[in-house]
Amino acid sequence: MSVHTLSIDGRPVAVEAGASLLAACRGAGIALPTLCHLDGLTPVGACRLCLVEVEGQARPLAACVSAAAEGQVVRTDTAQLRQFRRMAVELFFAEGNHLCAVCVANGACELQDLAVAVGMDHSRFPARWPRRAVDASHPLFTLDHNRCILCSRCLRACDELEGAHVWDIAERGEHCRLVAGLDQPWGEVAACTSCGQCVDACPTGALFRRQESAGDHQPRRDRAAVLQQARQQKLWRNQGEVPP
Amino acid sequence: MSGAVRRLRCCDGSACRNGGGIALRQALLAARAAAGLAEQELVIRAVGCLRLCGRGPLVAADGPGGSRLWGGVPPELASALVAAARGRRRRGQALAIPAPAHPPQAGPAPGELRLAGARLWGPCLWEPAPGRSPQPPVAPFDPSAPAASAAPAASAAPADPSAPADPSAPVASAAPADPSALVDPSAPAASVAPADPSAPAASAAPLDPLAPHQLDPHHPFFALQRPVVLECCGLIDPDSLDDALDHGAYRQLQRCLHQLTPAAVRDEIRASGLRGRGGAGYPTGLKWDTVALQPPGPRQVVANGDEGDPGAFMDRTVMEGDPHRLLEGLAIAAYAVGAEHGFVYVRAEYPLAIERLRGALAAIAARGGFGPGLCGSPWPLRIALRVGAGAYVCGEETALLHSIEGGRGTPRPRPPYPAQRGLGGAPTLINNVETLAAVPAILRQGGAWYGAIGDPACPGSRGTKVFSLSGAVVHTGVVEVPLGLPLRTVVETMGGGVVGGAPLKAVQTGGPSGGCIPAARLDTRLDYEAMAGLGAILGSGGMVVLGPATAMPELARYFMGFCVQESCGLCLPCRAGTVQLAALLDRLIEGRGAAGDLERLEELAGMVRATSLCGLGQSAPNPLLSTLRHFRGEYLQACAGGGAGDPAGGPPA
Ligand SMILES: Cc1cc2nc3c(=O)[nH]c(=O)nc-3n(C[C@H](O)[C@H](O)[C@H](O)COP(=O)(O)O)c2cc1C
Ligand code: SF4
Ligand code: SF4
Ligand code: SF4
Ligand code: FES
Ligand code: FES
Known about the structure:
CATH class of the largest domain in chain A: Alpha Beta
Bound molecules: flavin mononucleotide, iron/sulfur cluster, FE2/S2 (inorganic) cluster
Helix content of chain A: 10-25%
Strand content of chain A: 15-25%
CATH architecture of the largest domain in chain A: 2-Layer Sandwich
Low-confidence stretches of chain B: 90-123, 133-181, 183-204, 642-653
Oligomer: heterodimer
Number of helices of chain B: 24
Low-confidence stretches of chain A: none
Mean pLDDT of chain B: 84
Structural class of chain B: alpha/beta
Strand order of the largest sheet of chain A: 2-1-5-3-4
Number of strands of chain A: 10
Number of domains of chain A: 2
Radius of gyration of chain A: 19 Å
CATH topology of the largest domain in chain B: Rossmann fold
Largest sheet of chain B: 5 strands, mixed
Shape of chain B: globular
Strand order of the largest sheet of chain B: 2-1-3-4-7
Largest sheet of chain A: 5 strands, mixed
Number of helices of chain A: 6
CATH superfamily of the largest domain in chain B: NADH-ubiquinone oxidoreductase 51kDa subunit
CATH topology of the largest domain in chain A: Alpha-Beta Plaits
């Protein structure tokens, strides 16, 4: 197995060839902010929060979808990157309808955590207040589009882990929205096995269990990673750490 | 003897169809029958774009007296056109032709340069009038010249149509420079009104009803063109494989299959200096090498005919006017990179291009396919047509691949580039339609020949480029010119400047990914680097001329609105950032701007540009940033609009 060595924020790091820059950063003990990335799922590079500067590259790279390479000189915490990240979080808040105080995920939301981390107490961009719906047709779960950040983690979890591919994203640009089945009420989609993978993968309070109310949401966000490892190690039955 | 053939070429491109081209052609057929003429006595042929699309429908007449050209002819004048094509010139038509110095003449023209139906007169869309040569002298095709030395396998066929041998000859010199000579800019485009009574010829004889429609084929708009990609567009019937073959189609593919190794083909392309015409200008030879040199296994080739930029119709012109040239270029590319399967991806908004390509592919299949049918080789290339569904982002190469595979048209991060991993995981070559359509001529004449076209001052921009000229310009249409030409030549000399003689404000190039070049920089050359240096791009060839009435913040708002609509929504900066940029621009335009808005605009534009996933988001701020750079005053004024009277520029709290 070949190894790449690189420098991240001045620290030398060695990673397996083929590892992502995100893995390399973690190897160096640096926690990059991420939203669309979830261990155990294929990365897509959609939220642009994990951007890092690599010497010799004209623009910053999304660490989750970029391979680490020999000799790279990487910076993860420049003033420019901090500005970009803060603007990204502001854009997320301005784009949806986020009222944390009454949200199921209050206290367990990755977007909220990020806002705290980048020091965003308000968005400088005017809120769009889009008209979005809530899909409460499923017997076990609810989808609140107002809090959806279109990260597609639910879609990938359903497709890659459960193999059901219930979710897709319809429309374009600001009108993008998550759709179940053939743009049906979720509860009518026969392909849904009610496994709850999507709910556990969701970084925000957009997907939650029906009975949850404000602040109740306690997703198992490591479920995807655990399942993926279990598969790699051929642990086909629930054993030890594999959640129900 | 072909010179004696009298022929009417009726433009059957989209623009001319919209202008009533089909009705006119039918009226011409009826008029020919009414005049008791046989088909061979007056050939009436549907052809691709004749370039001056803004005056459609266009009709060109070729005869022993040279070529004549009419635009905006109503069907009622069909019999007059037939009469004119038969050589019955009437007085009065001198109105629009400044100097038809030679009377019509029977018999073969002295300047005749035809051989067995194949032109030896590359850059001339028009038969030269006797004794009058708007083009530089053309050296005859020399079969011993190195580039073309390997005669095609089917050497008994008519000789190759050979483009001019001397690319350094000044194309421009012989042409008249009066931009108003082509048409009277004050006359409405399709006017059938009598000609200007003050014109000298008008009073002498009964007025020729065609006179107001007559155009001058020697006007710089035509004369300064250098058709390479479009050398057969407007000459051949795009629905006829035989016509294309008569004009040399697939001759270079035959030569490649029988005489050249794939590496030799790539050498020729690399030597030509050809760069991608789809916008980014990536060296084509390098891209072909990258695909060819991937580990062994299947490969794919794709022609990108999505062309979604507003104001761009170069690729449409190629696909509608000469579909076989694109297919030959794609087939040669496939041979050069080792692919046996390819796709042509065309946007659904181009129904005529789709129809022509479908017909072209069917005609090839009916002959037995590219290899066995056209080239006598077992080479099994198959090419399929895919029709897009109207998303601009599907022109982006990775989104296009997703679309071909039946998925949602969203881009993915690169690397891996399609050249490494594309359709079905196979290395995939994606080139723009115009890039591929340049390939047959490059192989015929040699890479060095193509590389010599252009201005020595612009070493990075070789060959010719097709531009679509539109907006507030007098002559709207398609021009193919050598790169390195000053923008002014295209816009003022060829295009005739701004309608009504108004001063030009700027030229927008590259559509929603591009920028504006202000009037003061009109001497900028058509050069990838020079234009990028000004914050604009050479882009795919859209060129929109802006008159004094255009407000730059509104222009920026228009393009930002386009990106808001066309963003695929995958990545945040483009999906949400363009929306906020558009909202900020709205505020400025509506006079609600506040102090600090310009800085906010620039900061957000910089973020969207730097952090978006694909080229759409990365270039979406370009029109805004380039107009901010060259017309900042207009933005400052708009900002001040809301807070008038406040010297600090702040909003009245
Ligand atoms: C948003 C976007 C739209 C694009 N649209 C087109 C298009 O319509 N036609 C095209 O040829 N290339 C388009 N491109 C460029 C292609 O991604 C690709 O670079 C090109 O087809 C490569 O061909 P070339 O090297 O011959 O230029 C677009 C790129 C982006 C980012
Ligand atoms: S999803 Fe997260 S950010 Fe949005 S309202 Fe809920 S807790 Fe707040
Ligand atoms: S529902 Fe949740 S996981 Fe799915 S796209 Fe929206 S925010 Fe992401
Ligand atoms: S930049 Fe725009 S078009 Fe490109 S991936 Fe992002 S959202 Fe989609
Ligand atoms: S975590 Fe890398 S782009 Fe979202
Ligand atoms: S389409 Fe007829 S001249 Fe261009």
